[in-house]
Amino acid sequence: MIPELEKALNTCNVDKLAAILAHDPSLINALNDKGVPYAFVGAMQGNLALTRYIVEYTMASMNTRDADYKGILHYAVMSGKADTIPYLVERVGMSAFDGDRNLITPYDLAHRTGIKKSKNTSALTIRSDMRILTTIPSVQVCTLIHPLSV
User: Fold this and answer.
1) Burial (CB count <10 Å: 0-12, 13-18, 19+), residue 138
2) Sign of CA dihedral 45, 47, 53, 56
3) Which of 44, 41, 46 is nearest to 14 (CA)?
4) Across 35-43, average pLDDT
5) Residue 133, SS3 per DSSP
6) Beta strands in 70-122 (DSSP E)
7) Which of 4, 25, 120, 136 gives 96 a disulfide partner, CB atoms 3.0 to 4.6 angstroms apart?
């Protein structure tokens, strides 16, 4: 069943994917031979339609991580295609500041790789001089004060 699942995901055959997952919905959370959850395949390909289908119509867990503790947003950024990033951040609520095993965040990856804006993505912009990903919401900084230090 797993080879059929891989083929359906790699060819973006949503009908075949739906048929396979109808028999065993938990397969979407299984790991491939590289230790990456099948739920991440759409993001790995930078395929927004497949990512949306997996997120919205399967029982894929968005809290799943690979062996290096990378999440789905890490894979979307590593794909080099910007289409899936705003969807995962703005609609799914994935954090751009969740670090992997080496404390590298999706924001760090986007900054390093300088993802280019897609024609279909209006929310994602990159300033070419500083390569700053501006679709990621700003972080509100708060200071914790220990009660005994006051």
Assistant:
1) exposed
2) positive
3) 41
4) 93
5) strand
6) none
7) 136
* 3-state DSSP assignment of residue 31: strand
Per-residue pLDDT for 59 more than 90?
A: yes
92-95 contacts, C-beta under 8 A, 24 or more apart = 92/55, 92/62, 94/62
To the nearest whole number, what is the mean pLDDT of the chain?
80
Q: Which helix (H) or strand (E) holds 15?
A: helix 14-23
User: Which structure tokens are listed for 117?
Assistant: 């804006």
**Which parts of the chain are beta strand (E)?**
126-127, 132-133
Quick one: what percent of the chain has pLDDT higher than 90?
A: 64
Q: What SS3 state is found at 114?
A: coil
CA distance 18 to 32: 18
User: Who's near 132: CB < 8 A, 6+ residues apart?
Assistant: 111, 126
